[in-house]
């Protein structure tokens, strides 16, 4: 709840360039969504572990590999959801509304327009949308 309040508070602050449109920080939106996903997943895991009996499976190489793939897939889903929060926070979905190409190109010209380059991942609407599409 505290993180949700902190997120909403960022949208209620007066900004000279906002033209009376409430906008929350994409960082706070991603933090709020990430914490909600972690809390929901932990609650679901706990509830299912209490309701369902544990099966003892032999620790084979195939089972360990399957678990690694499952953890990797879970991490990619989590990362995709967080990148969606950045798309929503920056209204990046409005920049290029064609799919699968972005405009007339597969890789847009303004993908790395900001300096330093790392800033593009979190603040450039084109890069944020591109990353979300790739994920």
Automatic annotation (TrEMBL):
Q: Which organism is it from?
A: Pheucticus melanocephalus (Black-headed grosbeak)
Gene symbol here is Cox15
InterPro entries for this protein: COX15/CtaA_fam (IPR003780), HemeA_Synthase_type2 (IPR023754)
Q: Which superkingdom?
A: Eukaryota
Q: Which GO terms describe its cellular component?
A: mitochondrial inner membrane
Designated name of the protein: COX15 protein
- Which cofactors, if any, are listed as required? heme b
Q: How does it sit in the membrane?
A: Multi-pass membrane protein
Q: Does the keyword S-adenosyl-L-methionine apply?
A: no
């Amino acid at each position: 709840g505290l993180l949700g309040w902190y997120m909403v508070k960022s949208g209620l602050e007066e900004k000279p360039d906002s033209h009376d449109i409430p906008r929350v920080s994409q960082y706070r939106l991603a933090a709020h969504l990430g914490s909600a996903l972690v809390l929901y997943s932990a609650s679901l895991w706990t509830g299912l572990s209490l309701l369902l009996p544990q099966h003892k499976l032999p620790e084979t190489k195939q089972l360990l590999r399957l678990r690694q793939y499952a953890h990797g897939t879970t991490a990619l889903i989590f990362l995709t959801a967080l990148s969606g929060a950045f798309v929503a926070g920056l209204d990046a979905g409005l920049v290029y509304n064609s799919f699968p190409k972005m405009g007339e190109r597969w890789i847009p010209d303004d993908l790395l327009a900001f300096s330093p380059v790392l800033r593009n991942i979190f603040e450039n609407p084109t890069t944020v949308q591109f990353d979300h599409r790739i994920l």
